[in-house]
Design a protein that fits this description.
The complex is a heterodimer of chains A (389) and B (129).
Chain A lengths: L1 H10 L3 H9 L3 H54 L2 H4 L11 H4 L7 H17 L2 H13 L2 H9 L4 H13 L6 H4 L8 H14 L17 H13 L9 H6 L3 H13 L6 H6 L6 H14 L5 H7 L5 H14 L5 H10 L3 H13 L5 H10 L2 H11 L6
Helix pairs in contact in A: 3-6, 6-7, 8-9, 9-11, 11-12, 14-16, 16-18, 18-20, 19-20, 20-22, 21-22
Chain B lengths: L2 E5 L3 H13 L3 E5 L2 H10 L4 E4 L8 H10 L8 E5 L4 H10 L3 E4 L4 H21 L1
Parallel strand pairs in B: 1-2, 1-3, 3-4, 4-5
Classes of the chains: A mainly alpha (389), B alpha/beta (129).
Amino acid sequence: MWQDFNSYLLEYPSLDAAIYYFINLPLVIQIACVFIVIAFLATLFAYGSILVRRFKGGRRDRRMSVIIPRIDTLLTEHIILNEGLSENIPIDQIQLPLEEFRIPLLRSRFGKQMLIDRIVSYKKSFTGSIGALLRQLYLELELDKVSFKKMKSPKWNRKVQGMIELTDMDMSISDVNILPLTNSKNRELRAEARNAYIKLSKNEPFKFFDIVTEPLLMWDQIELFKTITTTEEISIPNFARWVTYSSNKSIVSFCLKLIVHYNQQDAAPAVMRLLENKDHVLRANAINCLGKLRYEEAEDKLVSIYSNQPLNCQIEILKALGRIDTGGHVLFLRQEFLHSSDFDIRKNAAKSLIKTTGVSQDLIRELIDTGTAENKLILKHCMNPLIKF
Amino acid sequence: MRNILIIDDNDIVQLVLKKILAKEGYSVDIAINGKEGLARIGQQPYDLIITDLMMPYANGFEIISKIRQHPMGKDTPIIIISAITNEDSVLEGFKLGANDYLKKPITGRELIIRVKRLIDAQVSRAENI
């Protein structure tokens, strides 16, 4: 066939002839030809893009190998080993040799970015006077303008980059610029904006809780929790405010965790009101919170609502009784342990019975002696201090 | 001249600590990971060791424990410099034999004072013996 085709093309060498020949091929062959052409072009494109990336990466590495040592030398000579630091001169009175940093190598966009990256990295490792002088240099070289410009970029990754730079350099960003981003559709941008807002806003770091419409995902909550608990000098509000008024369930749930972390006993009445909430997940979170706060006033209420609750809430109530540990509902726990048909209920009732300090060893002994084989196993399991719930 | 060994995989920390300590008159060696650090300790005695906790090959705790088992490192003062700030890690560091713990980000002046204090104490202890 190919010989025919070749001789045909030699005889009539034109595109029309090739198309004419292709049209007259069997359908299977036509499909195969199309796939071959697509695969060939895709391979060419893939190799091409790899080559371009490698070339760009190589060029970047070569430029970096020249710029980075130069920046390191400048930073160590003029910032780290600055004479003013050893003479205890106030940071704002130290004259920085800015001209040294305005060399042609650092004037380009790439050079400026390398300088920002390096200053930010140094700032992360050093605080005190060195950190303050690094910030001073960042400001005097007007690199903050470069970072602010990134915040206005339409590209979300540039925005995130600018925000991280400004946060790491302790620059304040106005609410107008950052608050809308805390509710962005883009998950990374949203998370970074929230982290930045908590770090940078000295008065109301949790203001964005008021406007959040998107749910706080579990990973967002972990990141925020880390930021909140590791940021120094953060003003912690009473989280009962959002427990009472927020319509965003994930915010309420997150605030319950923060109430426990900061042991905000004042928030307990607001958490109690959540026991009337229609959402059983929120109710379970509220019960968990009350138990961890060891809010004794909640105990009777929890026992009274127990029978109307779904399984997850019942388990949380049993756990809460063990945590609150007043010993006032030992009989209730005993009854649940002995008569419940659900294994989880019996296990958590047993654990709470053992945790309750008012329960005598005689009762536990009696339960072990008179219980079924399974109940004995549960009790022994719960008495093992190495097993946590 | 007193010898100090810095074990840290962060190039900025290596560079800056070296500059700061060299300015104070110390001779500084750098090891970029725990494995290299332990190899260096076997080659020559040091007056002080500064180590990070999170590093490739061997973490700071393993390094401290091995230094304390090494005849040339059992009495050498060790400073941990780490971004890990939880109480358990700090206590674990001291339990294994570290003499001081600096939390990142660090300040240059604080580092110099702590290094000087530990080296002076080590020198006076050696003189008394």
